[in-house]
Amino acid sequence: MTTSTPKALPLAGIRVVDYCWAVAGPVVTKYLAMMGAEVIKIESRARLDGARLGNPFLEGKPGVNKSGYFATHNPSKMSVRMDISKPEAQALIRRLVARADIVSESFSTKVLREHNLHYEEMKKVKADIIMISLTMQGQTGPFAHHVGFGRTLGGLAGFDHLTGWPNSNPAAPNQPYTDLVVPWFAVASIVAALRHRNATGLGQYIDMSQLEAGEHFLEPALLDYFVNGRSEKRVGNRTPGAAPHNVYPCQGTDRWVAIAVMNDAMWTALCQAMGKPGIAIDERFATLLARKRNEEALDHITGEWTRPQTVEEVVAKLRGAGVSTGAVARGEDLHSDAQLKHRGHLRIVEHPVLGKPTQVWPSFRSDEMEPEMRRAPLLGEHTHHVCREILGLPPEEITRLEEAQVLF
Amino acid sequence: MLTGYRILDLTDEKGPLCSRILGDLGADVVKVEPPGGNRSRRMGPFYHDEPHPNKSLYFWSYNTNKRGVTLNLATSDGRALFKRLVAKADAVIESFMPLQLKAWGLGYHDLRAINPRLIMTSITPYGQSGPDAQYEDPDLVLMARGGLLYMSGETDGPPGRTRVPQSYNQAGAQAAMMTSLALYHRDVHGRGQHIDLSMQEAVANALISVQTHWDVLRVNERRGTSQVRGKVIGRYSWPCKDGYINWCWWVAPGWGQKNYPLLEWMTELGMQGDLWDQPWEEKSTADLKQAEVDHWEDVFGAFFKTQTKAEIYRQALKRRIMLFPTYEPSDVANYEQLRERNYWHEVEHPELGEKVTYPGAFVLTMANMWSLRRRPPLVGEHNREVFGDELGLTTEQLVSLKSAGVV
Fold first, then answer.
1. What is the architecture of the domain spanning A245-338?
2. ipTM, 2 decimals?
3. What's the whole-model pTM score?
């Protein structure tokens, strides 16, 4: 780093009115916020963002400001408490949107329409507004209104069916995985919409379906069906061009090491590291085709070698020998991984309730764009600020709206 | 829209989705491969199972909307031509190992000297620097080291990955997001930049709460088809008559009633057991005992086994039960919702004399920002168009370069 003054971020000056809740939507607006946009998260005790009630909580005790889950996905935003089912709140939102560039939401399809806050209405107060809706399956079609959440949607998309072992249950990553697929498509689309607006003066409505974005992460399997009529199944860690190519047990409970032998040289190196140079030329394993034919036996031999060792011992031996390998990292391992430490993957961002939690850093580094990472807001922390500074409300009016549970 | 941007895509299997996304949003993408094509063309499955560089379905998936040229960057002529392309480009996306481009005199600082407004996005396994930066590891190892593999597969078996390499797609899609922001940044502030993306870190950014669980509770989240809920374990995945469905029960004031539409259906078929007598709305998950949960799950599980996934999904839609079937590719391909939204696109492959169906718009917008305009390029298909028509090379010069293995 040669400079010390913070550089301007790309979305400085962009204001976002954000109703997003749960994970996918908030991750989109987290990136907008980290890249300089002013994101005003509209929340309410009448309709709490479910993520505020998501594990893990500090000391395991629930509380709207104690969720590490919420803190992870909502940094750098402001939080305003407004009950959008109240007409007076809707009037305030209209005034806010009139001063905004983007509106983002991830409710089920009918909610904003019920409150008269849908795109056609927002367009009346800000002609060039860009509005994005993030749902499970889009705004139209026979299943548009079917509600759900990411952990189960992964099944519909095919991630479950294509993950895990052929003789075991379908088992995608045990989390709402598509919630961390769709945001990357969404942010790129929003940037494209901003550029379009800057060039033409036109805003637009963006309909994102978590299913439709997610399928691109499985696209080769879909082409295989359309082109070859083959409906693929999960195959564990096998791959056609390499063997061994799997995870192997190590000392300890549920500890595994990944080993990927990508060519003959790595195979010879593995055999030497295992102290079994003889099997390198054993006719059952000497060629790739032989190893593929006898992969089960090969996995057994490799696993017997790793089992009494620690993950770290195996990795050190194989790395030194030039074999592709790595720990199957658990949460705690991500905190101690030397390479992730080098990049500063996890950085402490102090929080008045959570203390000194770490924030997950984005996957990129650039001298020109340093993410602006401020802690996640407490519920309603910026209600007064936004009412006063952006909406220009006098203090007595703010008090009245609080008493009327409009700011709630 | 990203119309008007010229992107040069040097990626192999690591992150071709990046410029695919930018191309879908309107950018003009030129794929630059070594003569013969890059190694992602060796990845299966293949069209009609014929392994051939122009028939890799992996390559097809992530290289639509791109034109393709070949260029040997290890030669001085190759490098000179590449620099001429860079002079007119807005962004270069590359996935060489760190220092490789620099060794060829084509590192970010070399290219910036030619085009100060250039964005360069580098996608590597572990980033440009650090103790592991020079290890060229494949998807399996990156999924392992990024934490997603530990979360994949059944609880009581070994971690098992997703069949389509997710580390490559996570890196590619996150790179597309950052590159679009960098282009916007340049248009506002006038400066190009170098984006250093780590695939390991891209995988770690696909974790919802693994890092924070360790941070806050010193607990490692675990893989499987069930989840820890309070002090009990509740399942997500249920076998049915012809496959699986995903569903979970709810217990809590304000949430328990979400079970009732399913219970009503079970009651109509006489399979409700004693489930109406359970404290769905009275208790919270923290008060539950595993024995009572196991009992519920036996009753629910027995019911699901009597029904097909199609019937369960049909009833779920009608009754507003929050569940989804576990679809396989053939189900996805024939799913009514995607068909009704015109999700699939037929793309002409003239070299095969047929049309191929591709997944479609990841975003629907009023301005039709998304489009699928061309099939993936054959190896070197646009050499003449780009080197001849655009850079002005003569036919004789192209023959010389071809003979010398440059293009």
1. 2-Layer Sandwich (3.30)
2. 0.98
3. 0.98
